[in-house]
Design goal:
- The protein is of the alpha/beta class and 338 residues long.
- It has two domains: 2-146 and 277-308, Response regulator (Rossmann fold), CATH 3.40.50.2300; 151-275 and 310-337, Response regulator (Rossmann fold, 3-Layer(aba) Sandwich).
- The protein is built from twelve helices and twelve strands.
- The protein has helices spanning 22-27, 47-58, 78-91, 101-110, 154-163, 188-201, 218-224, 238-242, 244-253, 278-293, 315-320, 327-332; strands at residues 32-37, 68-73, 95-99, 116-119, 141-143, 169-175, 205-211, 230-234, 258-260, 272-276, 309-314, 335-337.
- α2 (47-58) runs parallel beside α10 (278-293), α3 crosses α4 (101-110) and α5 (154-163) runs parallel beside α6.
- The protein is elongated.
- The relative contact order is 0.17.
Length: 338
């Protein structure tokens, strides 16, 4: 199944640890965790937050009893990352749990002493300056990375071609803000290379569409699908996540079959998603928290890579595009939205 494709280069943390020791409970020393959610809605039932909460519960932590959790939501606003991180420092939390690489960097700048667990912190957190190495991060940050290498990005093209055989060209929509800072490596290169190679192998024309605002792509998408033979790959960023509905609506406006790199786009009507399971990474973040609270140093805990990849297909969106999704493709999906 697609959701069990493994990236063996990642290092695992081992088995689940036991709940918080009885001595800490008896002394009333309840640890406080600061959780910074970069984009997702401010709701305990939001899938990623819910996965983290469930991870804590599975380890014996009960919020309000033997652990306290402070949740902060940045709603995709860059300036909020540093603000919330600074607030956690003032609150003297015992551990920070931070989604994505930019907020994790903001948290690292805010403190070099409070342990930080980054969730999905970029394809290469070493080059981003978050950790010293994957095996031994050093410093006060550990957690999980995004996908290194990007070979799986070729699957986006393959899935689009399978779902919409008529296509002859594919656009690759990116947030211009995802360009690296001067002197930093461009993490987008492996993903672009894999998608471009897959498009060439399938006989498709490949076009990069780099925009600052979704509306800037309007004319490009019109040309891309001028004869209803275009398709679209949308590479998510924190900014794009905050405007997922706008992007999905834009693809629908131009009748473009689109595949997305983040699950959040499916919640607002996207056609297909294929990529790492963020909720799984958030759930595993609880394991890091548990180990750190028991005395482990974050610098000694290896950074994990994703091990769970999902394919989600929205049949309602397919119907609006007049697509008949092949049964074999539906059978490989982890989730089919009716």
């Amino acid at each position: 199944m697609i959701n069990r494709r493994m990236f063996l280069c990642g290092l695992t943390l081992g088995t689940l640890a036991a709940p918080l020791n009885s001595e800490a409970q008896q002394t009333g020393n309840v640890p406080r965790i600061g959780v910074l959610v970069p984009v997702e809605p401010a709701s305990p039932t939001e899938p990623n937050v819910a996965a983290f909460r469930q991870g804590l519960r599975s380890l014996g932590y009960v919020e309000g009893q033997n652990i306290a959790v402070e949740y902060r939501h940045a709603h995709g606003k860059r300036e909020a990352y540093a603000e919330h991180a600074a607030e956690f420092v003032r609150l003297k939390v015992d551990v920070m749990v931070v989604g994505s690489w930019q907020p994790t960097l903001a948290a690292k700048k805010a403190t070099q002493t409070i342990p930080i667990v980054g969730v999905g912190m970029g394809g290469d957190p070493v080059h981003l300056g978050i950790v010293s190495s994957v095996a031994r991060p050093g410093g006060n940050v550990t957690g999980s990375s995004w996908v290194t290498g990007g070979e799986f990005a070729g699957k986006w093209v393959e899935l689009l071609k399978e779902a919409a055989p008529r296509i002859v060209r594919v656009g690759y929509l990116m947030d211009i803000r995802s360009r690296p800072a001067p002197g930093m490596p461009d993490e987008r290169v492996p993903f672009l290379a894999a998608a471009r190679a897959a498009a060439g192998a399938a006989g498709l024309t490949f076009q990069i569409l780099e925009v600052r605002e979704p509306r800037e792509a309007d004319s490009d998408l019109a040309r891309l699908n001028k004869d209803r033979r275009g398709a679209l790959i949308v590479v998510g960023s924190l900014f794009f996540m905050a405007r997922a509905g706008d992007i999905v609506n834009l693809a629908a406006k131009h009748q473009l079959p689109a595949i997305y790199s983040l699950r959040v786009f499916m919640d607002v009507g996207g056609l297909m998603f294929y990529g790492p399971n963020l909720a799984d990474l958030w759930g595993r973040a609880a394991i890091y928290v548990d180990k750190i609270l028991k005395g482990a140093r974050p610098g000694d805990l290896p950074v994990e890579q994703p091990t769970t990849f999902d394919l989600v297909i929205n049949l309602k969106a397919a119907k609006a595009l007049r697509l008949i999704v092949p049964e074999m493709l539906l059978q490989r999906a982890n989730e089919v939205i009716q």
